Amino acid sequence: MAKNLVIKVTAGSDAPERCSQAFTVAAVAAASGVSVSLWLTGESAWFALPGRAAGFELPHAAPLPELIEGIQTGGRITLCTQCAARRGITEDDVIPGVRIAGSQLFVQEALAEDTQALVY
Q1: Is the pLDDT of residue 50 over 90?
Q2: Cα–Cα distance measured from residue 48 to residue 77, given in angstroms and rounded to the nearest whole number
Q3: Contact criterion met (CB below 8 Å) for 52 and 65
């Protein structure tokens, strides 16, 4: 089993099941001791902002704020630089613990030894 997991989530409220699945997998992996790096891209970028996750609802799914908390306990959440810029989001806007970084870092993380990468 990979010791590191990099997950890129492109979906937000536009595709709630895919979005929830990415956050759920990341939270479960983090709770299992896997080092998790969750990347918010596309419409999921909005969940880097305070309060946005609380407005996300999907029947029979764990609440997004709880999943984010679990991910941050055992991993890291990164907002794509370009996605943030397109939405006018800056480092001053995001929830504590979320960083903004670009493709170079994503590639570096995804290609690291003992790493599995997933895209949702």
Answers
A1: yes
A2: 8
A3: no
**Quick count: other Cβ atoms within 10 Å of Cβ 59?**
5
Residue labelled with tokens 């306990």? 73
How much is the pLDDT for 74? 87
pLDDT higher for 120 or 24? Answer: 24
Q: What b/e sequence results for 20-42 when a residue is b if at least 16 CB atoms lie within 10 Å of its CB, and e otherwise?
A: bbbbbbbbebbeeebbbbbbbbb
Q: Among residues 80, 110, 107, 97, which one has the least CA distance to residue 4? A: 110
User: What whole-number distance in Å separates Cα of residue 107 and Cα of residue 47?
Assistant: 22
- Sorted by where each starts, the structural domains of the chain and their CATH numbers stand as 4-119 (3.40.1260.10)
* pLDDT greater than 80 at residue 2: no
Return d(Cα 68, Cα 38) in angstroms, integer.
Answer: 10
Radius of gyration over every alpha carbon of the chain, rounded to an integer in angstroms? 13
Q: What is the mean pLDDT of residues 40-48?
A: 98
Q: Is 83 helix (H, G, I), strand (E, B) or coil?
A: helix
pLDDT tens, position by position, 82-93:
999 999 999 999
